[in-house]
Amino acid sequence: MVKKVLFPDKYIVQAIRLIKIRWLVSIFLFIALFFSLYFKVPGLHIPGLLTSAIFLAFLNAVYYVWIYRTGKKCGFSCERPAKINIVVQIVFDFLMLTTILHFSGGIENPGIVFYIFHMILSGIYLKPRNAYLITLLAVFFFLALVFTEYTGMLPHYSINKYILDLTLHEPVYLFISLGLFVITSFLAAFIAVSLSEQLRVTQKLLEKSNQSLLEKDKIKDEFVQRVTHDIKGGLAVTHSCLTVVEKQILGPLTPKNAEFVEKALNRTNKLSDFINELLTLTKMRLANRFDTSKLSVSEMINNVVQNMQSDAEKKDIKLTLTLHNVTLYMNGIKVSIEEALTNLVHNAVKYTPNEGEVRVSVKKNGEKIIIEVKDTGYGIPESDHSKIFSDFFRAGNTKDIEGTGLGLSLVKAIIERHKGTINFTSKENIGTTFTVIFDAIPA
Amino acid sequence: MNEKKVLLVDDDKDFVAAQSVLLGHEGYQIFTAHSGEEGFKKAKEVKPDLIVLDVNMETQNAGFNMNRKVRNEGDLKHIPIIMLTGIETYPVTSQTLEMYNAMMASGDFDLQEVLKVGNNNSNTGVQFKDDNGKPFYLSLDSFVSKANSETGLLPEIHRLIG
């Protein structure tokens, strides 16, 4: 039912965003290293940090090539490969962060908060279980760092003499700060996970109700189609029966009776036209199959205008066609497009008073075909402009002219089915210009 | 004058009654039947010059099935048939029809409408499911929508038998 719209996959976008941020982080690292060399900051293990910074930039280039290639070939199933990329990025970030922290003071370095970012990110983009696993992994890396440095398995590069004393000789302080770090980590992950879960639930609900609305609309259309179809059948029979009487085959009618039978026949005809339009419209809306072919626009519009010529002559209306370009082609269903164009020209003739003028023109602008139907008719009152494409709507100044009110919504449905647009400008008692735009295809 | 015989087969008795009078008035001799089965018997009996046949009668495709039977019956198969339909027909190209045919055979697609091939009557045909649910292609002489029978039926009769 609902087609999946082809967007750049949001996980790919997220992976690329992470890479972009990491470029900034790498640059920041190099600048920080430069300054710490310049100001001779004590305690840092510069060779280790420099190697880490270079390695981080290298890794980032690898991520970039990887996700670029994935994005090119994954098509509709980008979510999984992109998520794998993101997870690898996060895990290696934890490793790099731990390494960099090791060379710059370990637990003394306030940079330990950087772990939190990835916990929040994974809470948003990964399944809750995986988000908590990522959090656990970060906590494990950090605890391992502190443990190995505390026990002396790895050297501790202190950046602050005071904290060194405190951390290394005060197990209570050490324990409390580690505990706080663990709690903060899991809290951050928890908040991110629950917020994004809520969002996901809301999104699912919206998708579901959207789907059910579409389905209800379809059921409605199918219902209308069935009902109109039954009415149509009944009308056809009524019409046949009335024709028998009207033709006086079985016996003569008094002139008065004949008059009323004729009225009844006329009304059946009109009702039948109306039902046919309604059916075509519903069919257009329900149709999901298309038998399109290459259509010559100039040929179609020429036929339409010629067929309408006699109607125009009856009202002494000058109906002209100007073709600025004769080799114009589009893709579409011939009968539908002809129906739409006929409807537009027919409307123009119908709503233009005697001795008026209707000008149809076709031209090409870039890759677009522009069809204009311009009349010197009654125009559409300003207040009705927003409503004229609605089903059953008829402008306030047309009450004396017969019509179903379905014509323009049919026209619009057809044009939109063909990925075209329709617009109009109109001034009451001066005239209306309808502009239809379709995509052109090569001749 | 030797009147041409027209057999009207439709389960809508009002429609048949009205059309009998109208076509009778045009100078045809009218025979009527109200089901595919009855229609076939009548056709064998009276050997009409033309059959006007509704699609949806005792079953959804009773008309098509009768059409098929007439086409397979030695002494009837030359008789032109006008199919009348109230259901929606959908004109398609023969390639599309082939595609639907394959889809129906694999059960992926349930045909709600009768697909009509070609715009001119010279190669009109329909794709429909017979009573066993098998897709079947039937070539037709003429296919007229019931709602337009006023404008469509009589010219078609004239075209086929004069």
Brief write-up:
Chain A is α+β, with helices and mostly antiparallel strands and 443 residues long.
Can you walk through the features of this model?
The complex is a heterodimer of chains A (443) and B (162). Chain A has eleven helices and seven strands. Chain A is an alpha+beta fold. Among the domains of chain A are: 10-169; 293-439, Heat Shock Protein 90 (2-Layer Sandwich), CATH 3.30.565. In chain A, the strands form two sheets. In chain A, strands 2-4-5-7-6 form a five-stranded mixed β-sheet, with helices on one face. Chain A has a two-stranded antiparallel sheet with strand order 1-3. In chain A, helix 1 (10-38) packs antiparallel against helix 2. The model of chain A is unreliable at 1-7 (pLDDT under 50). In chain B, 38% of the residues are buried. The two termini of chain B are 14 Å apart. Chain B has a single domain, classed as Response regulator (Rossmann fold, 3-Layer(aba) Sandwich), CATH 3.40.50.2300. In chain B, helix 2 packs parallel to helix 3. In chain B, strands 2-1-3-4-9 form a five-stranded parallel β-sheet, sandwiched between helices. In chain B, strands 5-6-7-8 form a four-stranded mixed β-sheet, sandwiched between helices.
